[in-house]
Amino acid sequence: MSTSYLNNQSVIDAANACDVTRSGLDVNSSPVSYKSYELGAIVDTAQTLKTNTEYFLQSMNGALPYVDGVYHMRVLGAGNATVTLTEADIIGSLSISAPGKKDKLNKVIISFPDKQTL
Q1: Which of these, 2, 6, 116, lies nearest to 65 by C-alpha position?
Q2: Which residue of 8, 51, 73, 117 has the smallest Cβ count within 10 Å?
């Protein structure tokens, strides 16, 4: 695959997102620092490019959308997202419900036409 099909800046941005150092606590409640995503892998040349790419993307919760004829690498969910709510933030009553088993989908078929062939 030619590198002209890959947005280089998106790869740099994804690498930078993976290299962010975070801090937290280990199982003993001791402070610890770690990278957002790390991968110690060997490229299996017996596998297809698609299989190897999917393996790498899974390790960083990544995606490779194809936009305007070029692939863009994305890290999904990178970053800290926290919110603290108190009872004062809740207006009225709170109710949580989920659909029953009969109302849940167990299969979805989606077709994305290739705009090159339209």
Answers
A1: 6
A2: 117
What's the Cα-to-Cα distance from 29 to each of 2, 11, 32, 59, rounded to whole Å? 47, 35, 9, 26
Domain-wise residue ranges, the chain: 3-112
CA atoms within 13 A on the CB side of 8: 3
Count the Cβ atoms, other than its own, within 10 Å of residue 22: 11
The Cα–Cα gap between 14 and 10 comes to 6
The DSSP secondary-structure symbol of 6 reads: B
Of 51, 71, 75, give the one whose Cα is nearest residue 62: 75
Beta bridge partners of 71: 6, 66
What's the pTM value of the predicted model, to 2 decimals? 0.54
Strands (E), the chain: 21-25, 31-35, 62-63, 66-67, 70-71, 74-75
